[in-house]
Write a structure and sequence with these properties.
single chain; about 200 residues; mainly beta; 9-stranded mixed sheet; 1 helix; 11 strands; about 55% strand; elongated
């Protein structure tokens, strides 16, 4: 079993605005923890935890937008460690926590004898919570935090097609799908579903 872990942290203090209505000090904290566990029984488990918080009143440009990546196309490239069924600026908050989990089973579920076809299944679960402390300060903007919890689940199938590139490595192609559910689920089924194209390289 092989483990990998990476912790990053950023703490920033902002000076007051000169002549602004929000003339006070603000501090911002961003923290990200990436952890990976390899197991011969379950494959590869990849966790990412992201946390952000702002102390002090902050104008819109300083707030956190949830990392949404939905481009509303029939097929779009996957964007790991983001909410792939959420719009880019759909959720805004001054404090949030987001958790991204991918379980890669690799060749545990199906072993292919072909070097061009080696499907590898992954299950994905993403969730996030957020809060906007002083919404009255942004009364001219329709801002929505993830107070009720944002949830999406899906699966990827990588390596459906593997093409050799000058005997150096393989170009890998696959597909995936994510579905949005919970308190922020849309009315129509298709509005909650995102289909994806997966591209990568391997040996």
């Amino acid at each position: 079993m092989h483990n990998y872990s990476l912790l990053t942290m950023l703490l920033v203090s902002f000076l007051p605005f000169q002549g602004g209505i929000l003339a006070q000090n603000r501090s911002l904290l961003l923290m990200s923890w990436l952890h990976q566990v390899d197991s011969k029984w379950l494959g590869k488990s990849i966790f990412k935890l992201s946390v952000g918080k702002i102390w002090g009143a902050a104008p819109y440009p300083y707030l956190f937008n949830a990392p949404g990546s939905n481009r509303h196309k029939d097929f779009q490239l996957i964007a790991s460690n983001s909410f792939q069924t959420a719009d880019f600026y759909e959720f805004t908050q001054d404090q949030y926590v987001a958790f991204f989990l991918e379980q890669r089973f690799g060749a545990l579920l199906y072993k292919s004898q072909s070097k061009y076809f080696k499907p590898a299944l992954s299950l994905v679960q993403n969730l996030g919570f957020g809060r906007l402390s002083n919404p009255q300060q942004h009364h001219k903007l329709a801002l929505k935090p993830m107070e009720k919890g944002y949830f999406e689940s899906g699966l990827y199938v990588r390596n459906l097609l593997r093409l050799p590139y000058f005997d150096l490595f393989y170009l890998n192609f696959g597909v995936g799908a994510m579905y949005r559910w919970g308190a922020y689920q849309q009315v129509g089924f298709k509005d909650n579903l995102v289909t994806q194209f997966i591209f990568g390289t391997g040996f």
